[in-house]
Design brief:
The chain has 252 residues and is α+β, with helices and mostly antiparallel strands. 21% of the residues lie in helices and 24% in strands.
């Protein structure tokens, strides 16, 4: 319901439907109401945010008040045009990469869990949170991903099209553990489960995915190699060492 209230507030600020801005927010509210009323696979009636466990290859993702289209993930930044490329100085070799190519380097965060250090890829925006660890066939022993959200809220993760199992840890806004789970790889989409882009809430595949919840409001989520939890001996309330202040400033 918090998702719906946020959008209603924005709708009122834009003139309750007057103009393009108001119409856009009104459309978002309509989508949210549809999901809430149908109890869809993407947002529980309680307002819990449902996120892919290792990345999403389709469907809608609700991320902090934004509704993503069912046709695919958020768009990445536009590629630079040829005129934006730096000119080579006399005597220098031109760049080997084709003009217009943009290489996005992953950001990493050092996180200490139960005395063990992990180097985690940081997912700080809609694009990286949406992609997650999808298509990964393995995760390094001390690797994984750290998801950060603009604000704390109830979260559910699902293993949508994830080929390997993953251990997950939910943290509140101060870095304390709220819940942790061993997420198992799901059976791939079957022939009798066609993708329903028109209404993902009626998608049979989405509906059968198991949800792994944060129990309480969470703002950070850690995904690590399967069975790593066995050696960490975590319990709810444990403090995880990470740059909480810095992450909150950088998250989008």
């Amino acid at each position: 319901m918090a998702e719906l209230r946020d959008n209603v507030d924005q709708w009122r600020k834009t003139g309750a439907g007057g103009g393009g801005g108001g119409a856009a927010w009104a459309k978002r509210i309509a989508v949210l109401l549809a999901v809430l009323l149908t109890g869809g696979a993407l947002m529980a009636a309680s307002g819990t945010l449902v996120i892919p466990g290792c990345g999403d290859q389709g469907g809608i993702q609700l991320s902090d008040g934004q509704v993503k289209p069912a046709s695919g993930p958020p768009k990445a930044p536009a590629k630079a045009s040829a005129k934006d490329q730096p000119m080579a100085k006399p005597g220098e070799k031109p760049a080997e990469k084709p003009l217009g190519t943009v290489v996005a380097e992953a950001e990493y965060e050092m996180v200490t869990i139960a005395g063990q250090e992990f180097k985690l890829e940081a997912a700080l925006n809609d694009v990286t949170r949406f992609k997650g660890l999808s298509d990964r066939k393995e995760i390094a022993a001390k690797g994984g991903m750290l998801f950060a959200f603009p604000r704390a809220r109830r979260l559910d993760f699902v293993m949508r099209e994830c080929p390997i199992p993953i251990d997950i840890i939910f943290l509140d806004g101060s870095g304390r553990v709220t819940a942790f789970h061993k997420m198992l790889a799901e059976e791939p989409r079957r022939a009798d489960e066609p993708k329903n882009d028109a209404d993902p809430t009626l998608d049979k595949y989405e509906s059968r995915l198991k949800r792994y919840g944060s129990t309480y409001d969470a703002q950070f989520v850690i995904e690590i190699k399967a069975d790593t939890l066995d050696s960490l001996n975590l319990k709810e309330g444990d403090q995880i060492k990470l740059d909480v202040v810095g992450l909150k400033k950088r998250v989008k």
